[in-house]
Design brief:
This protein has 127 residues and is α+β, with helices and mostly antiparallel strands. It contains 3 helices and 7 strands; from the N terminus they run E-H-E-E-E-H-E-E-E-H. The longest helix has 8 residues.
């Protein structure tokens, strides 16, 4: 069977947050010196759906503190040829200590997500 492309499916907010809670690594997207920047970080979701990031990096904490950021988490299975991604947009604030380790919280204002599955070639699937 040959794959012909991908089939994206939008996810509701609740499912986005549920999927995010299954992984512990994501990307925080922010502005550094007027340019886009992306950093890989560990995170958890609290009971209210806030993204909680702990970092020892002073520069990251300073750059995102009190600013609007995007946060992205995803998972892809090469075996299943399927995956998902979720993006959260919200204001980041530091909630613990102004020295390492920094605890940053992003409260989601916009949450979007999609699943992605490869579509089998229907001609080859029946032959």
């Amino acid at each position: 069977m040959r794959d012909t492309g991908t089939y994206p499916e939008d996810l509701p907010r609740g499912e986005c947050l549920r999927l995010m809670s299954t992984v512990g690594v994501g990307r925080v997207i922010y502005t550094r010196q007027a340019l886009p920047a992306v950093d890989l970080v560990n995170f958890t979701l609290d009971d209210g759906g806030d993204v909680v990031i702990t970092t020892v990096r002073d520069d990251l904490a300073l750059a995102v503190r009190d600013s609007v950021v995007a946060f992205e988490a995803d998972h892809f299975s090469a075996h299943d040829k399927a995956g998902w991604h979720v993006t959260v947009i919200g204001r980041a604030r530091e909630v613990a200590s102004r020295r390492p380790p920094h605890v940053l919280r992003v409260t989601p204002e916009i949450v979007t997500g999609r699943t992605l599955r490869l579509i089998p070639d229907p001609v080859r699937a029946v032959s």
